[in-house]
Write a structure and sequence with these properties.
two-stranded antiparallel ribbon; 4 helices; 2 strands; 52% helix; 10% strand
Length: 108
């Protein structure tokens, strides 16, 4: 019986997270703190995302290569050869306010 409260805490936290997430979804708000590559937060508004023109061009290029039948490995090799920054390096260099310290050894 002494362990009952300890076992109950994770369940209570899970329920709170689930309720919070469903409330955000119901209100049409973003539920994740992460920002998809190709977007930025609008200044002063954490909910609104705007297109990052430079990253969006890379995303279009990736889709074009995939449409041409290139494998993900081939696309990665092409982007490395073109010295396209990986998403963490792009965030660190272009949008430091959105960079969360992800470590990487090669920025391409």
């Amino acid at each position: 019986l002494n362990s009952l409260p300890v076992n109950f805490v994770p369940l209570t936290m899970s329920v709170r997270v689930l309720l919070s997430t469903s409330s955000c979804m119901k209100d049409g708000k973003r539920c994740s703190g992460s920002i998809p590559y190709g977007y930025n937060r609008m200044a002063g508004d954490k909910q609104t995302l705007v297109v990052d023109p430079e990253a969006a061009e890379v995303v279009r290029h990736i889709f074009q290569l995939a449409n041409e039948g290139k494998s993900s490995r081939a696309i990665a090799a092409i982007l490395t050869e073109e010295q396209v920054l990986i998403p963490a390096a792009h965030a660190k260099e272009k949008h430091p306010e959105q960079y969360h310290g992800q470590k990487f050894s090669d920025k391409y």
